[in-house]
Amino acid sequence: MPDKKSGKPTAPFEVPAVDRSATTRRPNAPRMTGASVHVSLAGEIGLRIVRGDYPPGTILPNEAKWSEVFDVSRSAVREAIKMLMAKGLLSSRPKIGSWVEPKERWNLLDRDVLGWYAASPDRESFLRAVQELRHMIEPEATALAAERRTEEQMNAISQALHDMDQATSLQQRTESDARFHIAILRATGNDLLVPLGALIESALNHLFAHVTREEDNLRYALKLHENIEKSIRLQRPNMARNAVRKVLANTDQIIARWSR
Question: Is Lipid metabolism there in the keyword field (predicted)?
Answer without folding.
Answer: no
